[in-house]
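Supplementary Methods S3. Input chains for the assembly prediction are listed below.
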Amino acid sequence: MHPLRVSDDTYLLSVNVENILFEGLWEMPNGVALNSYIIKGEKTAIIDGVCGWDGVPEQLYQLLGELDINPQSIEYLIINHMEPDHSGWIEDFKRIKSDFKVICSKKSAELLEHFYGHTENVVSVGDNDTLDLGNGHILQFYEIPNVHWPDTMVTFDTLTGTLFTCDAFGSFGTAEQSSFDDMLTEEQLTFFEKEAVRYYANIVAAFSGPVKKAIEKCALLPIKIVAPGHGIIWRENPTRIIQDYSDYASYQKGPAREEITVIWGSMYGMTEKAVNHVVQVLEDESIRFHIHRLPETSWGTVLASIWISTGVILAVPTYEYKMFPPAAAVLEEIGKKKVQNRKAFLMGSFGWSGGAEKELNEIISRNRMNWTLLEPVVFRGNAQEDDFKKIEEQTRELVKQVREEVNQLKA
Ligand code: FEO
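Predicted C-alpha cells for the full assembly:
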C-alpha cells in the first residue's frame, strides 16, 4: 500500500492490520485498515494515526518517506479519537520528535495523560474552533461524543471539503490502492458496505443515539469527501455512507431489514433436524435469511446479522435447565448492544426439563430489549410430526410479522 492523494495537499496513509481480534474481541475475516491523513499546508498536520504495535509505526514512517515528508516536519498531530488503534504510535513518534503539538478534544487530552502520560503541547479544541495550516487549509473541529468514545470529534478542511471522521463512517476490510469509492465497482462497494455493517454492529452499535446526533451535526457542513479512520474514502458519493450509517443507527430500535437471522446449536442432532425444517420453510417463503451455528460462529458475525434483521429464530436445546450456553452468551452481548424490538421465535430440544425459554425471557427483560416472542416450540428428544407442523406454523407467522413490521415503516 502506497500513499494516495485524497485532494489538494491531502494524502491517505493506510496501514492494514490482519489476523488479530479487534479490541481483543472481534473477529475480522477481512482485516482492517488504519487510515491516517497528511495535510501539507505551510505547516504539516497528520490526522488520526495508527496503533503502536510492532512494525506499524514503521510502516507509517515508510509511507511518509514515499511522500518525501520527514517526520520531523510534522507540526500537528490531530487526534479525533484517542483509542489506541489511532493513537498508539504516539509513544514511538515521541522518540523521533518531541516538539509537536497535539490538537484534540478536552476528553482526549485527559485520556492521553492516562494512557501515555502525554501532557506537553496539548491544545484542547471544541465546536467551531479552527486551525490554519496555511495555503488555504483552515481546519474546523466539531465534537461528536460517543462515536465511539466520549472524546470523539471530527475535523473539517474548509478548503477541500474533506471531513475526517475517524471511527464514524468507517468499515472493516483492508485497504488497497483503490481505496476510493470512485475507483471501485458496485460489487466492491457492496463488499465494503457489508464490512461497514460488521464494523458498526461490533464497534459502534451501542452508541447509535450519538451516531444520529453526529449525522445531524455533520449535515450542516458542505462535505465533499468523507475520510474515515477505517475503510474506504467516499469521494464521489459521500452521502452514500452517511445514509448507510443513518440506516444502521435506526436498526437499533428496529425495524431493521426484511430479513431473519437463525441462530442455532445442537448437541446430538435433534435440534438440527428442526433447523433443517425451518430452512425449508424460509426458502419457501422467499425471505432473505442468515443462519449461524453456535459456538462455531463468532459473536461479531452473529451480531452483524441480527443488527440488520427484523426477525430472529433461536433454535437451541436446553442445557442443564438453561439455554444452550453459547446462545445465552451471544444474546447477552446482543442485549448490551441494545438490539431492540425484534420479532423472535424460540424452538429446540430438551431432555428431562425445559429452561431455555425462562433464560431467554430473563435476558430480554434484563437488557430491556422489548422483543416480541412467538409461542415457543420445544420438544423432548426428537421433534415429532406435530412439532414439525407447529415449527412450520410459527416460522410462517414470524415471516408474516417481519414483513408487516417492515412494510409499516415504508408506508
Ligand atoms: Fe477506531 Fe474507536 O477506534
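The pocket of MU-OXO-diiron is lined by residues 81, 83, 85-86, 148-149, 167, 229-230 (CB under 6 Å). The longest strand covers residues 32-40.
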